[in-house]
Amino acid sequence: MTSRSPLPPLAPTPSLPRRMAxxxxxxxxxxxxxxxxxxxxxxxxxxxxxxxxxxELQAFLFVVLGIYFTWFWHKGQTLAMKTWHIRLVGADGxxxxxxxxxxxxxxxxxxxxxxxxARAVFGLTLPQTLVLLGGWIAVWAxxxxxxxxxxxxxxxxxxxxxxxxxxxxxGDAA
Length: 174
Description:
Layout: H1 16-45, H2 54-75, H3 79-83, E1 86-90, H4 98-108, H5 113-122, H6 126-142, H7 153-158, E2 160-164
Antiparallel strand pairs: 1-2
Helix pairs in contact: 1-2, 2-4, 5-6
């Protein structure tokens, strides 16, 4: 047993409603990130209408969001996570490397892949896709209840976990 463990082994996991509120707040903040990135893309590509270079724009935004999340998760928290006192750490409580943060970003898309794939395969309308997306997000979030530490499954697969940032860290306690 090492005395240098950065976090106690059982740092509490934030509640599901708190994590989902953080997720929704993150979406509001990302509106600004996507707006600026989209404006930059349209200026650089001389885009004249919304459907021009659509696939390239989607790829560009995917990369921009990847950079955003990888950077902030490597530091431990995004702005929304700071607001809701949630921190991302490795499964062992250590800080998250950039490679692990990138893996978490890619695995987090599981929240969206199945409904988007169903739309492509079955030709669903936008309202049908949104209903399916809402249902899938609810199922994916509730699956965390089956994990002993109530972690989301993309965190389990990435070797990360969300903890309560108010929990005392090593060196904080006397």
